[in-house]
Design a protein that fits this description.
With 685 residues, the protein is an alpha+beta fold. Among the domains are: 43 residues, no CATH class; 117 residues, Sandwich (Immunoglobulin-like); 84 residues; 89 residues, no CATH class. Helix content is 17%, strand content 36%. The protein has four helices and 45 strands. A five-stranded mixed β-sheet has the order 34-40-39-36-37, with no helix packed on it. A four-stranded antiparallel β-sheet has the order 4-31-30-29, with no helix packed on it. Strand 39 and strand 40 form a beta hairpin.
Length: 685
């Protein structure tokens, strides 16, 4: 490693005083007079060559429009205004071929758009405004072909955009605005294939940007705005493939820049639609776009490496696509590269790519060419450490130890931050310590307790949160280096947001205790009220019962009065009816007194519902010798009856003596027997 004035990427001084290798493998080189030089072996994966006006052996003026390696392993590079360059890839030097008006053997134009080779080893050059050329490197002679008015066998236009030598060594030219010409080296004539001019190959598009031949021998013409036309020599027909709105199985865009073939698939680079992958078996199309990870949808070039993986140049960098993984598993695995990885630039040109015999690839663009072997592209294996760089409240960085600041030491040395509820808008800044290509470092973060999933921050190095509820949160961040190697352990920071006093646990406890006391007081008061209400109710019930009892007594008394009145009424009816009966008997005065007494007694017994009846009459002829004699009877057996009683003797005599009615409740068994024609019975109570 030494200073090379022709190489801006070399040391800027050979006076090296000190060298330091950091933990990421980067060398820091201190020089005398040249300051610090930094060498990172993982940074520059590609060898790039640019135009250096101070170096006559450098690449011609940018941009690069065409790259080609001929059959003698010579590498040719065409510039837009810089002419033709012969590139010595081993020494990194360039030999220049420029247009010289005074030299008819010089190239016809310094704008070399496309390069190819004929079967004789001549270099074929397509130019802008310079027609078509056949260049013999060994003789250093140039044969120029222009448009000759009136000569239909001459070149159809001055702007040749693409050259193809097919498997029959025929030379196909895409002529801007004129369709396709076929060049015959034997007679140096051109056959024109453009809409309406040749029925052999009915090509419609006049702006053909790319021509290629597939493994079946069919010629594919990619145009600007017209899609693809596929010409089959076997059938003589042309098949059109283009973009159809609403049809996902059509091309993604009609502006075609490049086409690459494998046995079973066709890869089409479009300017605006990304990459289209056509399966030959059924002509189904899959689209790989910026949404899937492509750097840009403007695809300029396609090259297949020795592992059948695709390298894609775009207007925003380069992409490696694991084609085999996609074709077998349907998984998009890719890696993107840009000038941070050593590419000459990010914007590449169509026609400016070529795979060399030794497997190396060259891609050209507006900033020069990049050369690399796919197998030499290694990822940066260093897992980047992550640090916290700043903590902000309301977008204001917090100083350490200042009143009101939650930091008492640097944020990177802080494990936990406490914030009151009014300071709940904060942001955390972080960085991955990977200096290879800092713009390629990627970040993801998550606030556990708030975010459900990881937030893909891309290149953004901060996270902001607002209006978080009180609680404990864990902020986590992970990061990758420039090649997507992730530090999955990451860094974490605990964030605790304290609640306002009315949301603290002790306030909740106080509220609960107060509520419990109020509930207890209410229940107790309610119980007392219930007791009072119960006592009052019981008192009212007693009063009600008293009133009810009084009412019941009144009712009972009324019932008794009614009963007694009924009895009296019955007695009155009884007596009235009896008097009526007896009046009838007394009216019958024809009978003697004894017979009348018997009738009277009989009617009386029947009337009162009795069974027996006796009538004793006092014989009081002598007041001192009164005898009660049986005078009349009803159903009585005189055998067992006394015919007479003395006053005071027995119930009969007692009744007579006391002149009171005697009611016998319990007649002694066998006291007397009364018989009738129905038999004997004891006197009725």
């Amino acid at each position: 490693m030494q200073q090379d004035l022709k190489n801006s990427g070399s040391l800027n001084s050979n006076a090296v005083y000190c060298i330091y290798r950091d933990n990421t493998g980067i060398y820091w080189i201190g020089t005398y007079g040249g300051g610090i030089n930094v060498y990172n072996k993982y940074k520059y994966k590609f060898m790039s060559y640019r135009h250096n006006p101070d170096n006559i052996t450098s690449l011609g003026p940018n941009p690069v429009l065409a790259v080609f390696q001929d059959s003698k392993q010579r590498v040719w590079v065409g510039n837009d205004g810089g002419g033709l360059n012969l590139f010595d890839i081993e020494t990194g030097t360039f030999q220049h071929f420029r247009h010289d008006k005074s030299n008819p053997n010089s190239i016809s134009s310094d704008v070399i758009v496309c390069i190819n080779e004929d079967a004789n080893g001549n270099i074929l050059l397509g130019t802008y405004n310079g027609g078509f050329m056949v260049f013999n490197p060994e003789k250093n002679t140039v044969k120029r072909y222009y448009t000759i008015p009136g000569d239909h066998s001459s070149l159809s236009g001055l702007h040749v955009w693409n050259i193809l030598r097919d498997n029959k060594n025929r030379i196909w030219l895409g002529v801007l605005g004129e369709g396709v010409d076929m060049f015959n080296p034997e007679n140096e004539t051109f056959t024109h294939y453009v809409s309406g001019s040749n029925k052999e190959i009915p090509i419609r598009n006049t702006v053909v940007m790319h021509i290629n031949q597939d493994t079946n021998g069919d010629i594919w013409f990619g145009s600007e705005g017209g899609g693809i036309e596929v010409y089959s020599e076997i059938t003589g027909k042309v098949k059109v493939l283009n973009y159809q709105p609403g049809d996902p199985n059509s091309l993604s865009n009609n502006d075609i820049k490049c086409i690459h073939f494998t046995k079973d698939h066709v890869f089409v680079g479009t300017n605006g639609g990304g990459l289209d992958i056509i399966k030959k078996q059924d002509m189904s199309i899959t689209h790989f776009t910026a949404k899937n990870g492509l750097p840009s949808n403007a695809v300029m070039g396609l090259l297949m490496d020795e592992h059948n993986n695709l390298w894609i140049s775009t207007t925003k960098g380069m992409c490696w696509l694991n084609t085999q993984k996609f074709l077998k598993e349907g998984i998009w695995e890719f890696k993107n590269y840009d000038k941070n990885d050593g590419l000459a630039g990010n914007e590449f040109k169509y026609n400016a790519q070529f795979k060399l015999e030794d497997g190396r690839m060259i891609f050209g663009g507006i900033d020069g060419i990049s050369v690399f072997h796919p197998d030499s592209i290694k990822d940066n294996p260093v897992i980047p450490p992550i640090v916290f760089t700043d903590f902000k409240l309301f977008n204001v960085s917090q100083k350490i130890g200042v009143k009101g600041s939650p930091l008492d030491k640097h944020i990177n040395e802080t494990n936990i931050i406490g914030l009151n509820h009014k300071k709940n808008m904060f942001s955390i800044e972080f960085a991955a310590l990977n200096y290879t290509a800092t713009s390629r470092n990627q970040y993801k973060y998550k606030l556990e307790g708030f975010d459900k999933d990881w937030i893909d921050a891309g290149k953004q190095r901060f996270a902001m949160y607002t209006n978080l509820s009180a609680g404990k949160y864990l902020f986590r961040v992970i990061a990758s280096n420039n090649d997507g190697i992730w530090n999955t352990h990451g860094r974490s920071l605990t964030i605790r947001i304290y609640p306002p006093w009315w949301k603290t646990w002790w306030f909740y406890l106080l509220v609960i205790a107060s509520i419990a006391f109020l509930v207890y007081f209410f229940i107790k008061a309610r119980i007392e009220m219930v007791k009072r209400d119960k006592a009052l109710l019981e008192e009212k019930i007693k009063e009600g019962e008293k009133i009810i009892n009084e009412k019941i007594e009144d009712v009972e008394r009324q019932k008794e009065e009614i009963r007694l009145r009924d009895i009296r009424e019955k007695e009155m009816r009884f007596y009235t009816e009896g008097l009526a009966k007896f009046s009838i008997i007394l009216a019958e005065l024809n009978d003697d007194v004894k017979t009348l007494s018997k009738k009277f007694l009989s009617e009386l017994i029947e009337y009162v519902g009795g069974k027996q009846g006796l009538m004793y009459v006092a014989n009081n002829k002598d007041q001192n010798d009164v005898v009660l004699e049986l005078y009349a009877h009803y159903c009585a057996d005189l055998e067992d009856l006394r015919q007479s009683f003395l006053p005071g003797e027995g119930y009969v005599g007692m009744c007579f003596k006391d002149q009171e009615t005697v009611i016998v409740d319990n007649v002694p068994k066998g006291y007397m027997k009364i018989s009738s024609g129905l038999g004997q019975t004891s006197p009725k109570k």
